[in-house]
Amino acid sequence: MADSSLMNYKTPVIVFTSVLLLVILYLSPYNNHNFIINNDLVSSNITSSTNSFTQNQNPQDNGTLSVSSTSTSVNTHIREKLTSSAERIEDDLARARAAIREAAQTRNYTSNKVEDFIPRGPTYRNPYAFHQSYIEMEKTFKIWSYKEGELPLVHNGPHSYLYSIEGHFIDEMDSEKNPFAAQSMDEAHAFFLPFSVTNMVSALYKPPSGAREPYIHVVTDYVGVVSKKYRYWNRSTGGDHFMASCHDWAAAVTSETPNNLFKNVIRVLCNANSSETFQPKRDVSLPEISLVTRTLVTSTQSRGSGSNHSILGFFAGGAHGPIRKMLIEHWKDKDDALQVHEYLPKGTDYGELMAKTKFCLCPSGYEVASPRVVEAIHASCVPVIISDHYVLPFSDVLDWSQFSVQIPMEKIPELKSILLAISDDKFLKLQKRVRQVQRHFTVNRPAKRFDVIHMILHSVWLRRLNFHLPA
Ligand SMILES: *[C@@H]1O[C@H](CO)[C@@H](O)[C@H](O)[C@H]1NC(C)=O
Ligand SMILES: *[C@@H]1O[C@H](CO)[C@@H](O)[C@H](O)[C@H]1NC(C)=O
Ligand SMILES: *[C@@H]1O[C@H](CO)[C@@H](O)[C@H](O)[C@H]1NC(C)=O
Ligand SMILES: *[C@@H]1O[C@H](CO)[C@@H](O)[C@H](O)[C@H]1NC(C)=O
Ligand SMILES: *[C@@H]1O[C@H](CO)[C@@H](O)[C@H](O)[C@H]1NC(C)=O
Ligand SMILES: *[C@@H]1O[C@H](CO)[C@@H](O)[C@H](O)[C@H]1NC(C)=O
């Protein structure tokens, strides 16, 4: 749907693992120590001891942390002296960074409560850093969701079908029961702009024009209102603000605003095409989850998976976009083991077929994201990602190579031999880890620890940790 011709950046490779080579420059307000962390806190190798848990795929990222001081823990005495809210907030974040570094170094965690889930194993790029980062988020992170704006464009969103994650996420952020809700704006580390691009398109779309001006106008207006009324937008020029949308057009709508208004905003988007405006270091890849109407489950989630995985590979869907077109041209109705259909055969059930399949094909369509990725995960089917420039959700935390197969478009003709070459042993390992990540792709209302909503928030938290408020 989206017109991508406006943006013509070229990144040559598929971005499966967005190693965030982030530079955090922390200038402490009271001791002037510089902390330079030259790679992402959570995805890095960090310790170089013999550890089968961490895997580093980016050859440039040697995983070392260069930190010029370790004394970030501030005693309460100094803390009491911090007067401005911006200082207090930066102090919170500095302590969180220090705790994450320490956990990565000691390969353990510190928590003031009993941990009911401990992420471990090769599924996580750095399980210790991730776990501690998550603990710190729960302890510290406070979000202000702006109250301005009216239904249906603000404070609401779609709750079923393709874009449903948008509505559920907005609800959770707006909810009084949100454990991350700030009591006051001064206390907030991040600010949420609760508008729904999907609802804007539903309410304002006038066929046959696909013009985006009406939506650009609404989001620009919204920022205008909150930046006039409160000082927080101006304080960070939007850098501690975030928005979320699963609509294909949300990336363009927010990047085509006058004066590039959203240039610092953390954009949480399903349309995570790094070859367009999506920037993995600043933006967050939002999983596309097609929920069955009025439920919180996907079409595969309720099936349960029998152990009879008699189909090697499976895909059913339209020939949208060049990747699917190629897939269908090569494989449509040609092979019993590798089942590729444009339309589901009569009398068959999509969810059941996925649950019977070893490898579920998830090619990009008109846009990079596909609801099939999450459907496959819930069917305990190993996702086969066929995509270019797709930044996979949570790839700063999860090592997708441990629970999915990634195949570049050019290899579509060799698809069957590639899948056949994966041993049963390897398949069972991949599948075990698919089951392990199911919780991270599950929608709960209210949200639960480590579920999809809180994983999205954790992605926002990581990016917030890498942003420093101007003094
Ligand atoms: C990351 O750590 C592992 C385990 O210690 C090691 O084998 C690997 O070489 C490291 N990767 C890099 C890029 O340093
Ligand atoms: C890792 O990279 C940093 C900066 O890129 C460099 O200073 C350091 O010497 C490297 N360490 C190793 C062990 O290669
Ligand atoms: C890791 O930390 C937990 C909680 O602080 C503690 O109970 C446990 O003994 C530690 N494990 C190791 C190996 O140090
Ligand atoms: C923020 O900056 C804009 C543009 O400079 C200005 O119009 C607005 O009044 C400022 N907001 C506040 C709360 O001062
Ligand atoms: C698995 O399913 C296939 C096709 O539905 C069937 O032919 C086969 O007998 C089943 N095998 C087992 C072990 O249930
Ligand atoms: C991603 O962006 C590039 C550059 O605009 C475009 O060529 C490609 O088709 C996009 N991918 C998808 C699946 O839309």
TrEMBL record:
GO MF annotations, alphabetized: glycosyltransferase activity
Stretches assigned to coiled coil: 79-106
The organism's place on the tree of life at top rank: Eukaryota
Region (Disordered): 50-70
Spans through the membrane: 12-30
Record keywords, A-Z: Coiled coil, Glycosyltransferase, Golgi apparatus, Membrane, Signal-anchor, Transferase, Transmembrane, Transmembrane helix
Database matches in Pfam families: Exostosin_GT47
Residue ranges of every copy of the Exostosin GT47 domain listed in the record: 138-419
Location of the protein in the cell: Golgi apparatus membrane
Membrane topology: Single-pass type II membrane protein
Keyword Cell cycle belongs to the record: no
UniProt KW Coiled coil keyword: yes
InterPro entries linked to this entry: Exostosin, Exostosin_GT47
GO cellular component: Golgi membrane
Family statement drawn from the similarity comment of this UniProt entry: Belongs to the glycosyltransferase 47 family.
Protein name: Exostosin GT47 domain-containing protein
